[in-house]
Amino acid sequence: MPRDQYARQSLGSTYRLVKESRVLLVGAGGIGCELLKNLVLTGFGEIHIIDLDTIDLSNLNRQFLFRQEHIKKPKALVAKEVAQKFNPGVKLIAHHANIKDRQFNLEWFAGFNIVFNALDNMDARRHVNKMCLAVDVPLIESGTTGFKGQVQVIKKDKTACYDCTAKTTPISYPVCTIRSTPSQPIHCIVWAKSYLLPELFGVSEDEPTELDHSGDTDNVEEIEKLRQEAQALKKIRESMGSDDFAKHVFDKVFKEDIERLVNMEDMWKDKKPPEPLSYETLEQEASSINSSIKLDGQRIWSPAENFIVFKDSLSRLSHRLAEEQSKASKTAQPLPTITFDKDDDDTMDFVAATGNLRAIIFGIETKSSFDIKQMAGNIIPAIATTNAMVAGLCVMQAFKVLRGEFTRTRWLWLWNGSLRTDQLEKPNPECPVCSVAMGRVHVDLEKATLNDLVQDVLRTRLGYGEELTVLTDAGIVYDPDLEDNLEKKLTDLDIEDASFILVKDEEDDNPRIDLRLAIEAKKPTDQSKPVALVEKEGETLDIPRRPTKEDAPNGGDVDGDDANGSVVTNGFSIAPPTVKRKRDLVDDDAASGTPAKKLQGPVAAEVAKNSALNAIVIDEDDGTLLIADDD
Amino acid sequence: MNGEHSLPDGSLPIENTNEVPQPAVNDPNAPNFIPFIPAVGNGFVPIPDPNFTNMTLPLNGVPSQMDAMAPTQTISADEIALYDRQIRLWGMQVQQRLRQANILLIGMRGLGNEIAKNLVLAGIGTLTVLDHELVTGEDLGVQFLVTEAHIGQNRAEAALPELQKLNPRVELYTDADDIKEKLPEYFHSFDITIATGLPVDVLCNINMACRAYGRKFYAADTHGMYGFIFADLCLHDFVVEKPRSNRPSKIGDMETPTRSVTAVDSKRENQTITDIIAYHETYTPLRLANLSPLPARSRNTRRSKMRVTPLLSCLRALFDFQSQSGGHLPVIRRPADLAMFTRLANQKHLELELLPETLRADFLRSFLQNLGAEISPVVAYLGGYLAQDVINVLGQKEAPLQNFLLFDGEDFTATQYSLHPINDDAMAMMNTNGLPMMPGPVPAEGPVTVT
Ligand SMILES: [Zn+2]
């Protein structure tokens, strides 16, 4: 029997839709590999796969399309090559590129029946969300973290979009906690990664996002002292390469700065004061250790071992920087720097050793370099099984999406083995992304001026009055008091292909809701008009009027009948707020008591178990645990 | 664990009953699966004491190899780098236990492919894949370890090269024998046996053979959008870490009729206190679970009954259908098959004390339509779930499946049903010497018909 025998049998008439579909898969990581396999085997007609990354050893425990010999090769290309063998009948197209590239414009997005997001960062997720909404292509959004995962279907005007719920912002720490009064391992690690390393090897003007300056005004004196300390460290940086560089650095940050802190007696009324370290003592202890032994990343190092790794990594980093600087000086490039990278052993060793030495000073528990890597690098645990389950659910949702059965799609949560379902939320009327009207314009970028857009499209075609404002990402480019730009070309205002502008109707009387217009570089068919509104046949762009206070939709009226269990633990929201309505479907497990209580259980357990996650130093990645796929 | 003589609910242990698998007598097409537990004298299983006079329970009392072998070898730096993202989730100790595990996987169709992939990626020690059938054309729609070139070759052997590429560190073996011809000793060497795609009689026999050696057993199967997983872990001890609760657990607490607390500990990290609770879980073999009622809380109100998936009745009906028809599936074009299946489904639904209106004709039709098929996203889900449960069980961390998981990919439900004999049932079961205690087929008078 043919290979599609079972799909025909099980899917019935849906199988034809599957076969004729054109889908986009964004991301060939943990979920992406699994999704691609499912899509290819099920027989989705044409599948585009896009990923910017290359393959790393730590991917191989779950990204099963990749093997040892593929390390450093582009994920998208290898994934295509391997998955094609699963079913030679489907058309696979791989893009080793960034989804935000302009070549992937609205017209390109509009060519797909479904887009699958299998991404590892919020920025790209937001971008795809916006693009799919702009061309009204359904998006199946997914993510996993350890044993947890979720799948959400996003369909314009029918369900909430990715940005309808606020996402957790990255965690940051008050400067004083990091620089003067650390109390947890993470504080010492952030100090090593975001203060010491950049001061010695980076551009110290770059403010790390992990430091929160909001409390600075309360501690003016201390902040000034800290500034002086940093200045002094810069001086020491000039002795890099000399024999006593390590001693200079050590004495500065582990002795003198600490002695200064100890003298601020007010600080240590309620806690044990820090104890400075002695370079000589540690050097003495270290001399009896065979420094050539490969230090075990799982074991917690002794002070002397940390000292050895400190000296060794400092010397490696110094040599590297010197080498790169001498190279750069010949080519007149900007001075190179070294920035933290969890997969760069030199920076990782440096952060682990200096963070631990600081922890010893403050009487804080030291950590293994394995654990420090996770905390400093924001590594999210990832396993094959959760990804496989989530990817399976994505495709089951896709069957319903292809049939247009959006009422039968669900918000799905995988929670330590149990599958929970919920109604998809209605769009949030306050959402900055999807509550606006959306339109597309074709623009002849060689000719078009702002006036062509404002007069021909907004006023003449769409009926806007005098009072309107046009904004780009950079700010206002037009309002009735700012007419200078009207004669400028759109390109001079940074309105380019694949960019968006926002139009606000400022009339007092019954104004329209905001309109987001997508700019597409394409000469309009009517040559006389350099800007033309894109409308599908038989459809006209209708921009609703802003609802008045009286008839404002009462948001959140979707079957709110379930128990209320808020799932914020330690002030750290793990899931979007909607989780309170999650219906627990593993209803036979009496172990966990009432559903509301059960919700509390695993959430808090997760926090406790991964207490490191509590204290993650988040880079640009998600703070929301549930939406992070691995890389 | 060795001191446990009775089930936590006070009933006697029901494993090791003297029941003997019954071959289908009247059907010439019955699976050629003569009770393989060697008959001694009276035809009873030789090693458990059928009269329960010896209450030391030697079988379940003997720790499996898995428990006995404390992880000794250290994991190399290369391995740590490879397994980095999972070690961060379950820790080094679990990873070491995985590496020592010896698993048997029966059936290498789509579901088997998924389970094998996940276990091999996770880094288990040894995996044996057993399948006596040959790769077919329709296999290619769901199996990613074989290609067109393999059609006609043995399924297990054909899948081996691609499976090995997923993780060269795992020791892989294939077995092209028919599982029905294996002696019970065969199952002795595996910590866990996973059986997929087999009729219920065969599953029950494998289950009892595993039990005879204190080995853990999983069964799973899929039909298009639907599927199930079953676990009989005999007696299983595991640890769960959870944040300190207001109602702390005490040793001896019965959290469910099958789960007791055996140790309580805690640890403190920064400001949070985490309880570390050790549990002991008692299991029921498939043959008994398949006859057991729903737990009280699933059937004591109309609302709770409404929530029970009709898939449970259909699955039991399918088990019986296969038992009575030599292992084959109902053929949708054969009116006699449809009538028989419908009658069985209604009967099972009534036995489960469920409401007639929850067994709808459209559901029956959909279930029958899907019979025998495998589709990639559903086997991916089931294979992911099962493999993770196996990993957790090997690592003795997290609560394992107890004991049925029913999956419905149309409705997005994956619900655990813990089906155990309640006291009276268990006693009755034992008193019948293992013969079926159910009445004969009831007349077809259910409200549901499939046309
Ligand atoms: Zn929105």
From TrEMBL, chain A:
Keyword Cell membrane among record annotations: no
Region Disordered: start-end pairs: 526-604
Residues that coordinate or bind Zn(2+): C161, C164, C431, C434
Pathway in which this enzyme or protein is active: Protein modification; protein sumoylation
Entry keywords, A to Z: ATP-binding, Metal-binding, Nucleotide-binding, Ubl conjugation pathway, Zinc
GO MF annotations, alphabetized: ATP binding; metal ion binding; SUMO activating enzyme activity
Keyword Protease: no
Gene Ontology cellular-component annotations: cytoplasm; SUMO activating enzyme complex
Domain Ubiquitin/SUMO-activating enzyme ubiquitin-like stretches: 441-521
Basic and acidic residues bias spans: 534-552
Segments forming domain THIF-type NAD/FAD binding fold: 18-432
Domain Ubiquitin-activating enzyme SCCH stretches: 311-373
UniProt-listed InterPro entries: ThiF/MoeB/HesA, ThiF_NAD_FAD-bd, UAE_UbL_dom, Ub-E1_IAD_1, Ub_act_enz_dom_a_sf, Uba2, UBA_E1_SCCH, Ubiquitin-activating_enz
Family membership: Belongs to the ubiquitin-activating E1 family.
Name of the protein: Ubiquitin-activating enzyme E1-like
Automatic annotation (TrEMBL), chain B:
Cell compartments where the protein resides: Nucleus
Pathway(s) where this gene product acts: Protein modification; protein sumoylation
Single GO biological process annotation from the record: protein sumoylation
Entry keyword Calcium: no
Residue numbers spanned by region Disordered: 1-25
Domain THIF-type NAD/FAD binding fold: 83-415
Cellular component GO terms held in the UniProt record: cytoplasm; SUMO activating enzyme complex
Matches recorded under InterPro entries: ThiF/MoeB/HesA, ThiF_NAD_FAD-bd, Ubiquitin-activating_enz, UBQ/SUMO-activ_enz_E1-like
Keywords: Nucleus, Ubl conjugation pathway
One MF annotation (Gene Ontology) recorded for this entry: SUMO activating enzyme activity
CDD domains: Aos1_SUMO (cd01492)
Keyword Nucleus: yes
Family to which the UniProt record says this protein belongs: Belongs to the ubiquitin-activating E1 family.
Protein name: Ubiquitin-like 1-activating enzyme E1A
